[in-house]
Amino acid sequence: MSETNTTQDKNRIVLAYSGGLDTSVAIPYLKDRTGKDVVAVSLDVGQGGESLETIKERALACGAVEAYVVDARNEFANEYCMMALKANAMYEDVYPLVSAISRPLITKHLVRAAHQFGADTIAHGCTGKGNDQVRFEVSIQSIDPTLKAISPIRDLSLTRDVEIAYANEHKLPIVQTEKSPFSIDQNVWGRAIETGFLEDPWNAPTKDCYSYTDDPDFPPVEDEVVIEFKQGVPVKIDGRDVTPLQAIEEMNRRAGAQGIGRVDLIEDRLVGIKSRELYEAPGAIALITAHKELENCCLEREQHRIKRDIDKRWGELVYDAQWFSPAVKSLNAFINDTQQYVSGEIRMVLHGGRAVVVGRRSDSSLYDYNLATYDSGDSFDQNASNGFIEIYGLPTKVAAARDVKFGNGVEVPTNTVE
């Protein structure tokens, strides 16, 4: 949908609309409570389910004055998933930011719709306990600080029993189904599962928790895959050209069939509480594993050390709703610069819950066989190590001499033979 400038009276609310009970009821409920017309905004980021056209029709049937729908899968893969891949983003070392990287994209379209349709307020369906309320509202402020943000569930006491009664009273076109025991958020980068019996961290996940991955204890035959990267982005799989979206989707299928990418985590939420979270991210985990190994070949030693620290900090900042912050913008510049020579092929074996790199090949690799080999043809000048060791160890040598002078030297045990 093209973006246009409007001069309407700003008497509208833009609502992040999923098509489910919560946001469908929110359309007339917000109108009743605020007196403002509602514009529904829906994005396809690879979550599956109903078509955008079906969701659009339902939004209009529930009373939305406009419905803004976008197939954002390629945009999400190209601009958000690939940046997370370049950053090897794994919050608390295991979680590849499934939800955190989709919220800035959704927010960008919410703000765009607010500008296009003359709204002064953006509504979302988050609760007061989650991270996403912060991600949406901080992102809104970062793009357009003049816009207001509200949450019907958090701010207007819109609980599930109220929703159902309201939907029945107003004959809203919503088919009630049995409520899932889990809260699920999913997109092309992965799937997040929480609540229900999982809130007791002693309870093990059951088979019905998982959808993107098969049981790793009963895998099919091992699957060998060759992924080619160009400047940190996958461009071929087994010799076939792929877009970022195609690369993620194919690795979701192949790694998911091997049970790769299951995460069970007690997570430190941004809002200050710990929560038990399950994640499935087969494609993300496999691609990050391959990308990290290619970086091992192609990044200079000190650059690589700094990048590992930057990657960790990038993941924390993006998790903490800082996608549009000056800090992340600056880190992006560093990360993108490091990817200049991250090009080549990684061969991996996928099997039984594990993605194992077994081969690496790159024209821009810093691995030099002639320097590394211990066989004849070795081009490394071993005699140079004598001077290197002397100079490298000189500070500690001088400090040790001082310790000995003042009686603080390292005690050396005396061996006695009986």
From TrEMBL:
Residues 182-398 form the Arginosuccinate synthase C-terminal domain. L-citrulline binds at Y95, N131, R135, S183, E267, Y279. Its EC number is 6.3.4.5. InterPro entries: Arginosuc_syn_C (IPR048268), Arginosuc_syn_N (IPR048267), Arginosuc_synth (IPR001518), Arginosuc_synth_CS (IPR018223), Arginosuc_synth_type_1_subfam (IPR023434), AS_cat/multimer_dom_body (IPR024074), Rossmann-like_a/b/a_fold (IPR014729). ATP binds at A16, Y17, S18, G19, G20, L21, D22, T23, S24, G125. L-aspartate binds at T127, N131, D132. One of its GO terms (cellular component) is cytoplasm. The keyword Nucleotide-binding applies. Pfam families: Arginosuc_syn_C, Arginosuc_synth. It is an enzyme of class 6 (ligase). It catalyses: L-citrulline + L-aspartate + ATP = 2-(N(omega)-L-arginino)succinate + AMP + diphosphate + H(+). Homotetramer. Belongs to the argininosuccinate synthase family. Type 1 subfamily. This is Argininosuccinate synthase. The lineage of its organism: Bacteria, Bacillati, Actinomycetota, Actinomycetes, Bifidobacteriales. The gene is argG.
